[in-house]
Structures are given as structure tokens and as C-alpha cells.
Automatic annotation (TrEMBL):
InterPro entries in UniProt: AAA+_ATPase (IPR003593), ABC1_TM_dom (IPR011527), ABC1_TM_sf (IPR036640), ABC_MsbA_ATP-bd (IPR011918), ABC_transporter-like_ATP-bd (IPR003439), ABC_transporter-like_CS (IPR017871), P-loop_NTPase (IPR027417), Type_1_exporter (IPR039421)
Keyword Iron: no
Top-rank taxon: Bacteria
Source species of the chain: Shewanella sediminis (strain HAW-EB3)
GO molecular function ontology, one term from the record: ATP hydrolysis activity
Polar residues bias (residue ranges): 23-34
SUPFAM superfamilies found in the cross-reference section: ABC transporter transmembrane region, P-loop containing nucleoside triphosphate hydrolases
Pfam families: ABC_membrane, ABC_tran
Lineage of producing organism: Bacteria, Pseudomonadati, Pseudomonadota, Gammaproteobacteria, Alteromonadales
Region (Disordered): 20-48
Membrane-spanning segments: 68-88, 108-129, 186-203, 209-227, 291-312, 327-346
Residue spans of biased composition, Low complexity class: 35-46
GO cellular component assignments: plasma membrane
Protein name per UniProt: Lipid A ABC exporter family, fused ATPase and inner membrane subunits
Length: 637
């Protein structure tokens, strides 16, 4: 019995096929994600939080069901092979050790090696397939989320900061990839092992199996109780991670301002507060997971020790053989190890459930710019006639942190404007008059409170948003430069443009002269947000993009405000040529920009105060005279 005692002790210490490090906590959050605002659910009523997560993940697995089936088959092959090793243990004890039969022992050892080879091969195939599925599902989730994000209006991003979106898009989808590729596979394998192990234990000894089953509720109870706690705390932890990352995103993007105002110490302190908030949120999750793992391990080992004592008594009385008890203990330890694996994996799955809820919120955020089922088509040749009829708009529907702002004052109040095809119209007025908002409404980035906007006699609400926006070429007040080459930045205006067409557009925008000075010319990488360019150079790249787009309506927002006098003159000549025959709306604070307009519209607090030429308005509009006199003084200085 000395040999049997040593064998039993070794089975208690090593659980075969165990894949999880119980001492390892893999839930530490990545610090480089998300928002300095406190995260709140995007959807009202917490309907998303009540939605089952696993069926949602299943929709992404469905296209790859052949691989899922193959992985399950290999899982069963590997598990059955592991389970059969218990019988190998029984044979080694009863027919090898106890009978001192070396030849039979050698045969059994070779059999065990063969079974182990089969099991290892199945594990390889299962691991490869499940890891591939995890990567594929993560990629598909990111594609779906990104596709939906591109459909959401600027109003959505006005209430949820970009850093928070990035946190959900990257960190949460990566967590799901880990769960699908690893944790879910481990949970399935452990579940099969538990069921198979219990069956084999029952075949070996019903009495001892009954004792083991009595311990099952004691082990499963903590798993379900603490599992729910871990899920809720994991969601809170992921939200705090989101808060942290957006703060990093904001400070690093505005590093010039941070350093210029020597704000480093204050930002460091604020960042420390957010890091500690992440840690505080993680403490509760870690505490519950630690309790869960410790309880499961203690109860499992306690049950095994009890069963070992009862089984040893049965061997002494001759009720079962030493080999049968060895096999039973093999299965008992295997089942205990699998239950411990399930307890560990449930924590990961619950954490992934919190991440899934955050992703579901993004995907199920309703598109706030409604579209008609059958959009109307624009005429083949768009003239660019624009008509605004009693247009009213306020930001009362734009929410911040999920809280609607009631009684928001109207930014645009009852505008009636008609712009004829090919007309050049300048918009002037103080900051907050509604000029930039009007551009947003023309492109239907926001939904009107009331009234209509028509393009060539068709209500833009009846057009597909992409069809509408393809009629505008925009030069914004703050030029947008992407982290790519000069060529690709300009080609953004028309993706099918040749390199020759891009160069022609840059020549027209007077950008070619400085581009040629770059060592790599049009292939020069401009850096994030065009860090390598001056303000005037960025402006000319944006103008070249609009020239290349060659669309019937031009929206120029302070199009020459960032240029020096010489560059401005060159660009104005290019714009004059570009605007010929096109409907053009210009937002300007500089008198020189609007002098050549066919008509000037004076806006104040969202209302149209006056309309006419420069000479007419100088005679009839006190507000415009004030604007013109102030601007003339500025330009004289």
C-alpha cells in the first residue's frame, strides 16, 4: 500500500489537463483608453444591460459554424482521451504494480503514451481553431462597430467623447477576443470533463460518486453568487478605464497648450486621480474573484480528502481494488480541476459580459438622422439651388452624459433664405450668430426642429445623406490634415483621382510651391493633424482637396483666414476660378473676403438681419456698418 499511497498523493497534487493559473489575475485594465467624463450608458432604460451577451456573440460566430463544429469535435476527442487515462491508471495499479507484471506494465505505458499523443493532437487543433475564431470575431465586431460609428451624426460625438468611443472600440473588443479564443474554449472543455469525469466515477463507484455529488452545490453556489458580482464590478471597471484613456487622449493631443501654460503638474495630479479611480474600481472585482477562487479550491480539496478517506476504508475492507480507487481519484481530481477552471473562466466571461454591454450600446445607438425608406434621386446635373424655409434649430436634443438639455435656446430661428444656382453668398455676423451651424444643417449633420431645406427643389430630408453630402466641397475653419502623405490628404476629396489631377489641384491652390520643397514631394508624410505644416499650408491643402472634389456647391468657412497677405492673394485667385459657375457660401470675418460676393447675409443670434451687396448694406444696416468699420481698422493696423 506504500506505492498506492504515493500514487494517490501525486494525483491529489497534480490535476491532469488543467489549463488555468489560479494565482493569476488577468483583469488588470489597460491604462491607455478613454474619457475624462464619467461614462454612462448610451441607451436609455438600461435595455441593453438586460440583453443576454452570449447570444449576441453567437451572431458573430454563426458565419464560421463549420470551424466551431470542428473545434467542438476536437474538444470531445481530447476530453475523451484524457478521461480514458483514468482506466490506464487502474490497469497500471491492478495489473502492473500489484501483480509485479513488468511486461503488462510496459504495454499499459505504451497505451497511455498513444492516448496522450491523440489528446495532444486534438488539443492543438482545438486551440488553433478557437484562437482563430477569437481573432476573427474580434475583427468582425470592430468592423460592425466602426461601420455603425461612421453612420452616427456629429451630435453623438458631442455627447460622448472620442476617447470613450476608442476605449470601447479597442480595449473591450480585445477582451472579447481573449474570451472567445481562450476562456470560452476552456469553459467548454472543463464542462465536458466534469460531465465525463462524473460518469466515469459513477461507473467506478456509485457510493463515492454520491459523496462527490453532495459537494457540487457547495462549489457551484459561490460560482453563481460571486459571478454576478464580478460582472457588475467589471462593467464599472471598464467605464473607469474609459474615463482614464480619454483624459490621456485629450492632454496629449493638446500638449502644446498644456506645456505653454505649464499645466503639467495639475494634469499629472488629475491623471493620478483617474488612475486611482481605476484601481478603486478594480479592488472590488479582485476581492470577489479572489474569494471565489479560494472558496472553490478549498471546497474542492475538502471534498477530495473526504472521498479519499472513505475510499481508503473501502480498499481495506475489499469493497473496491486499489486500482479502482486510483482511477476514481484520478477522475475526482480531474473534475475538481475542471470546476476550478470553470470558476476562473466565469470571472473572465462575466468581465467580458461587461465589455460586451458597452459594445452593444455603441452598435445599438440609434442613428439620429432619420432616412426615408426610398430616398429621392437628384437630377443628373445638380445646379446648386438652395432654399431654406422657416428653418429652426436648437441643440436641445444633443445630450451630454445621457442627460437631455431642456429649453435650449434656438441657434437658428425662422430662417428664410434662397440661394440661386451659381450665386456667391457671404455670411457675416458675430461669433454665435449661427453661421457654422447653418453649414452643419445644409449637410444634414443635425435634424431640424422645424422647417425645410431644399436642394434643387428637393427636401434634403428626402435624400440619402451620402447623396446630399456628395454635392458639397468643404473648406473648414480649422483645416483637417490626416496622418498620411500629401497625395492621400488631397485625394481625400476624390478617391479615384490620378496623381496628375492631385498635382493640378495643388497648383491651383498654390500649394505645389511648398510641396515641391519637401524631400519626398507629394509622398511626404505630414504627421498627426499635419504637425509638419504651418497654418497657411494646412489651409492650402484643404483648398486643394475642395478643388479636386469639384462639386456643385462650395462651403468656405474662413477659407483664407490662416494665410499671409501674399498667400491669401494667390489662393483668392484660385478660389475665384474655382467658384465660377458654382453655388458658393462663404463664412467670413474679413471684409476683403466678402467684397466680391453677389450677396451678403447678415446674421445675428440665428436670425437674418439684413441682405444685400456691400454698398447696400453700408447704407441700410447698422450691424453691418459696425462689422465693416471694425474689420477695416483691423486690416489697416
Amino acid at each position: 500500500m506504500n506505492g498506492f499511497g504515493k500514487l494517490t498523493l501525486s494525483l491529489l497534487v497534480v490535476a491532469p489537463g488543467k489549463e488555468h493559473p489560479l494565482s493569476q489575475d488577468t483583469t488588470s485594465a489597460s491604462p491607455m483608453t478613454a474619457s475624462s467624463k464619467q461614462s454612462k450608458p448610451l441607451s436609455s432604460g438600461s435595455d441593453v444591460a438586460k440583453r443576454p451577451v452570449l447570444p449576441w456573440i453567437g451572431t458573430f460566430l454563426r458565419p464560421y459554424k463549420s470551424r466551431v463544429i470542428a473545434a467542438i469535435i476536437f474538444l470531445f476527442i481530447g476530453s475523451l482521451a484524457w478521461l480514458s487515462l483514468g482506466q490506464g491508471v487502474r490497469l497500471m495499479v491492478d495489473e502492473g504494480f500489484l501483480q509485479d507484471n513488468g511486461d503488462r506494465l510496459n504495454e499499459i505505458i505504451m497505451l497511455v503514451i498513444g492516448i496522450t499523443a491523440i489528446s495532444s493532437s486534438a488539443i492543438f487543433c482545438r486551440f488553433y481553431l478557437m484562437t482563430w475564431l477569437g481573432e476573427r470575431v474580434s475583427a468582425d465586431i470592430r468592423l460592425k462597430v466602426y461601420d455603425h460609428l461612421l453612420k452616427l451624426s456629429p451630435g453623438f460625438y458631442a455627447r460622448l467623447r472620442t476617447g470613450e468611443v476608442i476605449s470601447r472600440f479597442t480595449a473591450d473588443s480585445t477582451l472579447l477576443q481573449s474570451v472567445v479564443g481562450s476562456s470560452l474554449s476552456m469553459a467548454l472543455r472543463a464542462s465536458v470533463t466534469v460531465v465525463g469525469g462524473i460518469v466515469m466515477m459513477a461507473i467506478t463507484s456509485l457510493k463515492l460518486t454520491g459523496l462527490v455529488l453532495l459537494a457540487v452545490p457547495m462549489v457551484l453556489g459561490p460560482i453563481f453568487f460571486f459571478g454576478r458580482k464580478v460582472r457588475d464590478l467589471s462593467r464599472q471597471s471598464q467605464d473607469r478605464v474609459g474615463d482614464l484613456g480619454a483624459y490621456v487622449d485629450e492632454t496629449l493631443h493638446e500638449i502644446h497648450t498644456v506645456q505653454a501654460y505649464t499645466h503639467e503638474d495639475r494634469d499629472r495630479a488629475l491623471f493620478t486621480d483617474r488612475v486611482e479611480a481605476v484601481m478603486d474600481a478594480a479592488k472590488g472585482r479582485i476581492r470577489y474573484r479572489s474569494i471565489l477562487i479560494a472558496l472553490v479550491m478549498f471546497l474542492s480539496i475538502l471534498a477530495i480528502a473526504l472521498v479519499t478517506w472513505v475510499g481508503a476504508q473501502d480498499v481495506i475492507t475489499g469493497s473496491i481494488s486499489g486500482g479502482e480507487l486510483s482511477a476514481f481519484m484520478f477522475y475526482a481530481v480531474m473534475v475538481a480541476g475542471s470546476v476550478a477552471t470553470i470558476s476562473e473562466v466565469i470571472g473572465e466571461i462575466q468581465r467580458a459580459a461587461g465589455a460586451s454591454e458597452r459594445l452593444i450600446e455603441l452598435v445599438e445607438t440609434p442613428i439620429d438622422i432619420p432616412t426615408v425608406a426610398e430616398p429621392k434621386a437628384l437630377p443628373e446635373l445638380v445646379t446648386g439651388e438652395l432654399t431654406l424655409k422657416q428653418v429652426r434649430f436648437s441643440y436641445q436634443n444633443i445630450q451630454e452624459n445621457g442627460d437631455a438639455k431642456a429649453n435650449e435656446p434656438q441657434v437658428i430661428g425662422g430662417l428664410d433664405i434662397e440661394v440661386k444656382p451659381g450665386e456667391r453668398v457671404a455670411l457675416v455676423g458675430a461669433s454665435g450668430a449661427g453661421k457654422s451651424t447653418l453649414f452643419e444643417l445644409l449637410q444634414r449633420f443635425y435634424q431640424l426642429d422645424s422647417g425645410t431645406i431644399e436642394l434643387d427643389g428637393i427636401d434634403i430630408a428626402m435624400l440619402a445623406p451620402q447623396t446630399l453630402r456628395q454635392q458639397y466641397a468643404l473648406v473648414p475653419q480649422e483645416s483637417v490634415i490626416f496622418a498620411t502623405s500629401v497625395l492621400e490628404n488631397v485625394r481625400y476629396g476624390r478617391l479615384d483621382a490620378s496623381e496628375e489631377e492631385v498635382i493640378e489641384a495643388c497648383i491651383a491652390a498654390r500649394a505645389d510651391e511648398f510641396i515641391q520643397d519637401f524631400s519626398d514631394g507629394y509622398q511626404t508624410y505630414l504627421g498627426e493633424r499635419g504637425v509638419r505644416l504651418s497654418g497657411g499650408q494646412k489651409q492650402r491643402i484643404a483648398i486643394a482637396r475642395a478643388i479636386l472634389a469639384d462639386r456643385p456647391i462650395l462651403l468656405l468657412d474662413e477659407a483664407t483666414s490662416a494665410l499671409d497677405a501674399i498667400s491669401e492673394q494667390k489662393v483668392k485667385q484660385a478660389l475665384d476660378s474655382l467658384m465660377a459657375g458654382k453655388t458658393t457660401l462663404i463664412i467670413a470675418h474679413r471684409l476683403a473676403t466678402v467684397l466680391n460676393a453677389d450677396r451678403i447675409l447678415v446674421l445675428d443670434k440665428g436670425l437674418l438681419i439684413a441682405s444685400g451687396t456691400h454698398q447696400e448694406l453700408m447704407a441700410s444696416s447698422e450691424l453691418y456698418r459696425e462689422f465693416a468699420s471694425l474689420q477695416l481698422i483691423t486690416e489697416t493696423v
